[in-house]
TrEMBL record:
GO terms for cellular component: gap junction; plasma membrane. It comes from Oedothorax gibbosus. InterPro entries: Innexin. It is found in: Cell junction, Gap junction; Cell membrane. GO terms for biological process: monoatomic ion transmembrane transport; phototransduction. The chain crosses the membrane at residues 29-47, 112-134, 271-292. Structural component of the gap junctions. Its main location: other. It comes from the Eukaryota. One of its GO terms (molecular function) is gap junction channel activity. The keyword Transcription regulation does not apply. This is Innexin. The gene is inx. The keyword Ion transport applies. PANTHER family: INNEXIN, INNEXIN INX2.
Amino acid sequence: MDLFSNLKSFLKTSSTTTDNTIFRLHYKFTSLVLVAFSILVTARQYIGDPIDCMADKVHSMPDGMLDTYCWVHATFSLPDSWNKTIGAGKEVSYPGVDKYVEGKTRVVYHAYYQWVCFVLFLQAMMFYVPRYFWRSVEGGRIKNLICGLNSPILSIETKLANKKLLVDYLAANLGNHGMLFAGYAFAEILNFVNVVGQMFLLDKFLGGEFSRYGVEVLQFTEWDGALRFDPMIKVFPRMTKCVYYKGGSSGDIESLTALCILPINVINEKVFIFLWFWFVSLSVLTALSLIYRQVLVFLPAARFVVTGSRARIADPVKLRQVLDRCAVSDWFVINVLCKNLDSIHFRDLIEDLAKRLEERTIKEFYDP
């Protein structure tokens, strides 16, 4: 709890709602999780040293020098040994760990673990970009329009005055909310592009292994226990090798092959298992949200159903009269107000706005 106590600000809820649940999953939940993971992989008090290496003839080295060298210069695995039989008297002691002959043995280097915390933090920032864009476009307009009508307890004078201001604004600005709605729709598209792009980014970062990670994990759970091995052992090995070069007593360069344990990968593999399933789920939910948005744009009846289901005590006849005179951008503002206003105040707002629009229609008919 001490480790993550500074993240509690992410959990604070705003008094004004200007987006939907899917939107908040991006900038609030996902960003929080990514920052928490970034902190976790650097918390040595919980996982110990991220790397521990051992080799023969290292008695003359300062303590920790071999660990630091292998961490900085990256460790490696032997891909020809990934699928060999593991165990005492068998082919290898661990997948990817076998006899190494410099210049002749094929190797795969692992340097990603130096960058995991930075990549996770960068991802958290990128998930907040659509939210930042939408806040810049919205500019606090919804909060100003609420005029305190989100509180169920107001004096009669304050309620009537604030409600009149809001009715005047809505009646005078019908058709002028196109940029506001376009900004929100673009932010939703950014959310989808971002989450899909993040999956490609992680796939590139992990050498093409992330895209099929989740599927292989599900298959891995069904394998025979005596035969199966972790499908991400190639990306997150817990044991690797490292070659350290030092000057010998005769002036020649001597090489020491070290065996390294990577406790950090116990955390990394769990982090990326969660991220694979979460990103796939979030991308599907976001795609459905975009389809839902398209339905609302092209079907006015759907907009009435959505707002009517939220404003249950509002007169449906008055609500339909208002929405019939509204473009989709105007409906968007009214629907956001419905989320924030007290239900009784919203009912009265719709009644007054319907009356105002009807008077305007009559006036335009007789005095074109």
